């Protein structure tokens, strides 16, 4: 039985800004550049009360809260703070798997400090972050990664929630299926159509039926509904790609996909800003009404360094789709891949040939 902790910094970018500028404390802070094409990188909890969220267009955030304080992001500073947080984690275990600058999994089945329980380790990490960095973090403790991530969000902000092995069977039945990884709007609607709203409902659906309806993901749903997750903590796994995709209620022609591509590019770009690595390849993914998947990609001479450049490349990739203009599409996705570390020669390499799948 593993002991897993998921640590999630509270409103990380905005909290760093409020820590470093006392005049921002207690005020609705939005970390974003102003402008029609800018998106929110982070929002303080004061700003979230107005409905402001990450990846939201900055102009919408300004409409929701005209008194919000907009602060231009400083990713070099956030990366430095993230490294300090990581150093604290590594005092307790070498098995740290960063997900972004502000969250990570830790396997503390055997911890380096000799603390008797994972809960004690989580408390120590949170206290060290508070004392040394003047920031708060929420943590979840559980026997696997899936449940630890669920738990870390349970008492946010500045909270700790523990799901012990003997509590899993009682915890899972009331958990909404929308909390399961991979269950987005469309999958949630498909589950609701067969009367599934909670993991308890999902547990009563036969595995064979889930596999028939959802393919290989059906088996994953079956396991998750019971709180089962066999994935291990993988330390120092570098970011390889980020992406966002959307399935439409009605199939659309290529000519109507521009606003969807732009919105998804905004989300993918915001996710890419949470890593210190540099993405070189822009990817456009399409799924036709008859479930054929097309992927078009482009690696420019230099990596896209602004949201506008990233958006433009994603939009231009439509020109490489050779299907009949009347073809309808049920899904579109936008991604940034082929990540390298800053300063690596590949970060400014010549473009690769287009990838097709």
TrEMBL record:
Which key words tag this protein in UniProt? Cytoplasm, DNA damage, DNA repair, DNA replication, DNA-binding, DNA-directed DNA polymerase, Magnesium, Metal-binding, Mutator protein, Nucleotidyltransferase, Transferase
- InterPro entries the UniProt entry points to: DNA/RNA_pol_sf, DNA_pol_Y-fam_lit_finger_sf, DNA_pol_Y-fam_little_finger, DNA_polymerase-Y, DNApol_IV, IMS_HHH_1, Rev_trsase/Diguanyl_cyclase, UmuC
Q: How is the cofactor bound?
A: Binds 2 magnesium ions per subunit.
Indicate the annotated site residue(s) for Substrate discrimination.
13
- Predominant subcellular localization, coarse grouping: cytoplasm
Query: Locate the UmuC domain: which residues?
Result: 4-184
Q: Name one GO biological process term.
A: error-prone translesion synthesis
Q: Where does the chain bind Mg(2+)?
A: 8, 102
The UniProt record lists the EC number as 2.7.7.7
* UniProt cross-references to Gene3D superfamilies, sorted A to Z: 3.30.70.270, 3.40.1170.60, 5' to 3' exonuclease, C-terminal subdomain, DNA polymerase, Y-family, little finger domain
Pfam families listed in its UniProt record: IMS (PF00817), IMS_C (PF11799), IMS_HHH_1 (PF21999)
Q: Which GO terms describe its cellular component?
A: cytosol
Q: What residues sit in the active site?
A: 103
Q: Which cofactor does it need?
A: Mg(2+)
User: Can you provide one Gene Ontology molecular function annotated for this UniProt record?
Assistant: DNA-directed DNA polymerase activity
Its recorded reaction(s) are: DNA(n) + a 2'-deoxyribonucleoside 5'-triphosphate = DNA(n+1) + diphosphate
List the subcellular locations.
Cytoplasm
Assembly, in brief, is: Monomer.
For this protein, the record's NCBIfam families field holds: PRK02406.1
Q: What does this protein do?
A: Poorly processive, error-prone DNA polymerase involved in untargeted mutagenesis. Copies undamaged DNA at stalled replication forks, which arise in vivo from mismatched or misaligned primer ends. These misaligned primers can be extended by PolIV. Exhibits no 3'-5' exonuclease (proofreading) activity. May be involved in translesional synthesis, in conjunction with the beta clamp from PolIII.
User: Family assignment?
Assistant: Belongs to the DNA polymerase type-Y family.
Protein name (database record) = DNA polymerase IV
Source organism (scientific name): Hydrocarboniphaga daqingensis
Gene encoding the protein: dinB
